[in-house]
Specification:
The chain is mainly alpha-helical and about 325 residues long. Helices cover about 75% and strands about 5% of the residues. The longest helix is centred in the N-terminal third of the chain and has 35 residues.
Length: about 325
């Protein structure tokens, strides 16, 4: 696999991720107010941009700006795409926690395990995907068609949390796990009368991890539309999800005010899918892709704000 990632870059990235995870775990027991969540979201985004600046500087001094500029731009584009798609994942988590009535102090515990699982899962998926794309480049066309279909489906689909109990995975888990009817604090399993029972908290954790699998299937191919370099794909992806816990608590109280966001995300997926399908006919530079994605997000948020203002008035 061709990559700009040197042992030094991989080592620095690994150290930064470990430090960020340690900080996030230390925050687990603290009350995450809206103000605190917003501040930490700014911190995570700033650290990601700082890493990209250091990444650019390293490439510029070792390989020249001809290499550094497009690679740093690819990281920024991949990060923005992943961050945008992660918002939809957060909305699914909100629905899950609301449906199962999980209190806020227990949500933090589930999200920590959820993010750790997502890091391991996405690392495996990205290296596996990079290996496959390197050997079978026609897979990019399949990714493109899949993203195009997913974008159209996202625009037309409706989430119905009332039907969550009828989902095949939920029904299978309830049918194969001895489960208590109530939550037992932070415990995923409890023993009653000598018999081991699962609590609803483990069910929610499984659903959180499963939802991340579903979103990873969308988001990882989307970054492959920007670059197939495993270092950039992995770093932009992981930096985007490391701040998910803070983003969740920041959006928890205002999720209903972003009702139109899914249409913007759907349009982004359609654009990226189309870009992958026509790559041999029309090559769209990374800078233009970044501009299109940023413009779609900005326009969606502005329209959403205007609609909310009209409703409030």
């Amino acid at each position: 696999m061709n990559t700009v990632g040197t042992p030094l870059l991989w080592g620095v990235f690994f150290v930064v991720v470990v430090i960020m995870l340690a900080i996030d775990l230390l925050l687990q027991g603290k009350t995450m107010t809206l103000k605190r969540a917003a501040c930490w979201s700014v911190v995570w985004v700033s650290l990601s941009l700082l890493f990209n600046a250091a990444f650019w500087w390293y490439l510029a001094t070792t390989q020249g700006r001809a290499v550094a500029d497009p690679q740093a731009l690819a990281f920024l584009t991949g990060y923005l795409i992943e961050k945008a798609l992660a918002v939809d994942n957060v909305f699914v988590w909100l629905m899950l926690f609301g449906y199962f009535a999980i209190p806020a102090q227990l949500q933090r515990r589930v999200l920590v395990y959820g993010v750790l699982g997502a890091i391991v899962l996405r690392t495996l998926m990205i290296f596996g995907g990079s290996w496959l794309v390197t050997r079978f480049d026609w897979l990019l066309y399949i990714f493109g068609a899949f993203l195009l279909f997913t974008g159209i489906k996202m625009a037309w689909s409706k989430e119905d949390d009332a039907a969550l109990d009828q989902k095949p995975l939920v029904r299978w888990l309830r049918g194969h796990l001895r489960m208590t009817g109530e939550i037992h604090g932070e415990r995923f399993f409890v023993r009653q009368n000598g018999v081991l029972f699962a609590t609803p908290l483990i069910l929610v954790l499984i659903l959180v991890e499963f939802s991340d699998v579903i979103f990873a299937v969308d988001s990882i191919p989307a970054i492959f539309a920007v670059t197939t370099d495993p270092f950039i794909v992995l770093t932009s992806n992981l930096f985007a999800i490391l701040g998910l816990r803070a983003m969740y608590f920041m959006l928890a109280g205002v999720a209903e005010r972003f009702s139109l966001l899914k249409y913007g995300l759907a349009l982004i997926l359609v654009f990226i899918g189309a870009k992958m399908l026509i790559v041999d006919i029309i090559h769209i530079p990374v800078a233009i892709s970044l501009g299109v994605v940023a413009s779609i997000l900005a326009a969606t948020l502005l329209i959403n704000a205007w609609v909310n203002q009209r409703k409030g008035g």
